[in-house]
Design a protein that fits this description.
By secondary structure, this protein is of the alpha/beta class. It folds into 4 domains: 3-41; 55-222, inorganic pyrophosphatase (n-terminal core); 340-444, Roll (Diaminopimelate Epimerase, Chain A, domain 1); 453-578, OB fold (Dihydrolipoamide Acetyltransferase, E2P). The protein contains 19 helices and 20 strands. The strands form 5 sheets. It has a 5-stranded parallel sheet, with helices on both faces. A 5-stranded mixed sheet has the order 7-8-9-11-10. A 5-stranded mixed beta barrel has the order 14-15-16-20-19. The chain is globular and about 75 Å long. The protein starts with a strand and ends with a strand.
Length: 580
């Protein structure tokens, strides 16, 4: 059972400091660490010229820019080496678009195959680059751990500029320049930029040194790609990330990118209505589906094409792949369901098949953790015959520690990640041992109790759910990590109607009626488990009766939906429980 907890009251001093704002806004600002008018104005009214930080505060930025400009001047062959996700791909697209803009064409994009190549640089790719007479490699959203590969590049006479945002290892690659604000001696104030955010700062720094006759402000038109990456990669939406996403959404709503226009048309979203939610749930997953189900280069071409027919073709391809991804996830979930006795659940779920797609194992693991409430390991086989897999924890154990115990005799080829999410690989002849080893390691692992606490910003009546309230919270957007949507507690509200919809009935819609007869809907995506929502015997949701006339308490967020081509205020369900 999730615990609901109202947030603490605003201290008198902060309340007085913020007195020029409505009471609800004062609360929401305080809960986001905003305590003064100066902080509030910067938060509520981002200003690009005022708030954008100097890129040269980043360690090695001077050196990286100098080497890049030298490569342009001497017409050297450059490799843009990007990660395959919806952060690395937009970052790669940004640098390629910049090079096209300055009419520099001696470069290639290299994005690894998610399923059959290693993460980051590999000795094989570095050797291939040397054969092509490459003189400079620029990594995007990767590279910070590629020590041996960078040494090999140096031996071939190739300079490496690493742009990354991941945690810095004990041993750094011997690159010519490393642009990663997480380095201990880096003085850049913002440590949590996405990989594409780092690349944007690099391009800004290059233009600060050499404009190439590009009009002032051109770089702002790259911010739609920064926003897509920042939201999708789930980095904190505060500080400079908030600034870049705020303006990036403005650019996205005016996008001229033919691929994005085609994709938005397919998903029936008008560019001018795009929000951070559309990036999270619609755009980002379709970009990621390229690497999961085919190759990330498709997403790259969609973001960079100038051909309308090609844009439509690739957008349709990504839409098809995203559909395949959803179907593949459901297929695996059904297969796992058939393997499990619900009355005798194992302590951990371990399952796999060579027929399962590697690219969606992480997504499926997360869904199974939500369904069964225990850690999950899933595996498949790549084109080289190696067993590769993903795992997710329910929070009771540290996945890496469990795999370290299970593989202390060299059982795994490799494994890694963090406490809640990870990956692994092993030789195919060892896969039959995997489940028992993980179960044994789990039994020895330190466990911790978990009780999910849901923080509530304010309690509202149903009558207070209106456009006036929405307009108060709208300036706090874009919402995301560290700036979550405000959560409201609606107590003792009567259900007017309830139904499941979409994807075989996976989604939930409740409707409530106000005193004046106006109705407001509440949507919960992936909230209905099979067999739990039965109109014949009464609607039930995690043991809660959702039949018409029943009264419940609801935790919700407010959102402006344009799904039906006109603005509709609706609720997004966070949690439900019986009325107190």
């Amino acid at each position: 059972m999730k615990k609901w907890k109202l947030r603490e009251p605003v201290p008198d001093k902060t309340d007085k400091n913020l007195k020029q704002y409505p009471e609800l806004v004062r609360k929401l600002l305080f809960y986001r660490g905003v305590k003064t008018v100066e902080m509030a104005e910067k938060f509520l009214h981002p200003n690009y010229e005022r708030d954008l930080l100097d890129p040269f505060l980043m360690k090695d930025m001077d050196r990286a820019v100098e080497r890049f400009l030298s490569a342009i001047q001497h017409k050297e062959k450059i490799i843009i080496f990007g990660d395959y996700d919806a952060d690395g791909v937009p970052g790669s697209a940004m640098l390629a678009l910049f090079l096209h803009k300055i009419k520099y064409h001696d470069f290639e994009i290299y994005i690894p195959d998610r399923n059959n190549e290693s993460y980051g640089l590999s000795p094989e790719t570095v050797d291939d680059f040397a054969k092509k007479k490459v003189k400079l490699i620029i990594t995007i959203d990767c590279g910070i751990t590629d020590v041996a590969e960078t040494k090999l590049a140096n031996e071939h006479g190739i300079d490496v500029i690493i742009t990354d945002h991941h945690l810095v290892p004990a041993e750094l690659p011997p690159a010519l320049a490393i642009i990663d604000a997480k380095q201990a001696d880096d003085e850049y104030p913002e440590k949590m930029l996405a990989g594409s955010g780092v690349m944007f700062k690099f391009i800004c720094a290059v233009l600060a040194k050499e404009r190439f006759n590009i009009s002032t402000g051109w770089e702002k038109w790259l911010l739609d790609l920064v926003a897509i990456a920042t939201v999708t990669d789930m980095v904190p939406l505060v500080g400079e990330n908030r600034l870049l996403t705020y303006y990036g959404l403005k650019v996205l709503r005016q996008t001229k990118r033919l691929g994005l226009i085609a994709l938005l048309d397919l998903i029936k979203t008008k560019p001018q209505n795009v929000t951070e939610d559309d990036i999270s749930f619609m755009i980002g997953p379709r970009l990621n589906s390229a690497s999961r189900m085919s190759h990330a280069s498709q997403a790259y071409y969609m973001l960079t094409t100038y051909d309308e027919a090609e844009a439509v073709t690739i957008a349709r391809h990504l839409e098809d792949k995203n559909k395949e991804r959803r179907e593949a996830v459901e297929k695996v979930i059904r297969a796992v369901d058939e393997l499990i006795d619900p009355d005798n659940l194992p302590p951990v779920i371990v399952a796999g098949s060579p027929d399962w797609g590697l690219g969606m194992l992480g997504l499926t693991s997360s869904r199974l953790v939500e369904k069964y409430g225990r850690p999950v390991w899933l595996w498949s086989k790549n084109a080289k015959g190696i067993i590769k897999g993903s795992c997710r924890s329910d929070g009771t154990i540290n996945l890496v520690e469990v795999m370290r115990e299970a593989g202390k005799d060299g059982f795994f080829l490799d494994f890694g990640g963090h406490a809640l999410a990870g990956g692994f690989s092993l030789a195919p002849e060892k896969v039959d041992e995997l489940a028992q080893r993980l179960i044994s390691a789990y039994e020895q692992a330190e466990k911790r109790e978990i009780e999910e606490e849901l923080l509530v910003d304010e309690q509202l009546s149903l009558e207070q759910v209106n456009w006036e309230t929405y307009k108060l919270i709208e300036p706090l957007a874009p919402f995301g990590v560290d700036n979550p949507k405000p959560v409201f507690w609606l107590p003792n509200i009567e259900i007017f109607s309830a139904k499941s919809f979409g994807n075989g009935g996976l989604h939930l819609e409740l409707v409530f009626q106000k005193e004046n007869g106006d109705k407001i809907s509440a949507i919960g995506f992936f909230q209905c488990l099979p067999g739990e929502f039965d109109g014949k015997d009464g609607h039930h949701f995690h043991g809660i009766n959702l039949t018409k006339g029943e009264k419940i308490d609801a935790l919700v967020t407010l959102e402006r939906s344009t799904f039906k081509n006109y603005p509709e205020l609706r609720l997004r369900i966070v949690d439900l429980k019986k009325a107190e």
